[in-house]
Amino acid sequence: MQSTTSRLGLGTDKFAKLYLTEREVWQSRGIGVQQLRIMRARGCGPRYVKVSGAIGRRGGRVLYAIEDLDRWLAQRPSGGGQAA
């Protein structure tokens, strides 16, 4: 199976360790692809970069820097925070 970066023509394995696709975010962090898209449209999700698609193809790929994604997740509130 060809790596994401090879398919995108983005270079080395080092790059692959820095960025995740929407699907990889879902698989590794549990945030659904549709939820990521909704947050992007609302401007409230993690930072991302959009890589242009191939000539003649519509759209492109959205990638999330692991560092930005983890920082964003760490800043999100978690738990109920109220004593029982």
Describe this structure in words.
By secondary structure, this protein is an alpha+beta fold. It has one domain (4-74). It is 44% helix and 15% strand. A three-stranded antiparallel beta sheet has the order 1-3-2. A hairpin with a 7-residue loop joins β2 (49-52) and β3. The protein is elongated, with a radius of gyration of 15 Å. The relative contact order is 0.16. The mean pLDDT is 80.
Question: Which key terms come to mind for this protein?
Answer:
three-stranded antiparallel β-sheet; alpha+beta; 84 residues
Short précis:
Helices cover 44% and strands 15% of the residues.
What is the mean predicted local confidence, pLDDT? 80
Give, in spatial order, the strands making up the sheet with the most strands: 1-3-2
Task: Find the structural class using helix and strand composition.
Answer: alpha+beta
Main sheet specs: 3 strands, antiparallel
Task: Write down the secondary-structure element order.
Answer: HHEHHEEH
Contiguous runs where pLDDT drops below 50 for at least 5 residues: none
Counted up, domains total 1
Topology:
Elements: H1 4-8, H2 13-16, E1 19-21, H3 22-29, H4 33-42, E2 49-52, E3 60-65, H5 66-75
Antiparallel strand pairs: 1-3, 2-3
